[in-house]
Amino acid sequence: MILNIIFGILAGWIAGKLMGSDGNVIRNLILGLCGGVIGSIVLHFIGITGKGRLASLFISVVGACILIWLARMFV
What is the pTM of this model? Predict the structure, then answer.
């Protein structure tokens, strides 16, 4: 549980850096955790799956980048 939160924060932070968006710890946590869900759905549709912490981190980062991109489209 604690490790998932840490990976969520890390994924949100990485996505923020990749997309040029800075945020605080809470924003990064939300981005990382929601990004994990979004990334799993999107990557599953295109046939990419993975197991393990590194794959989960990658999926969360991809999903968080998608969330940042979507937020920019609507704001």
Answer: 0.84
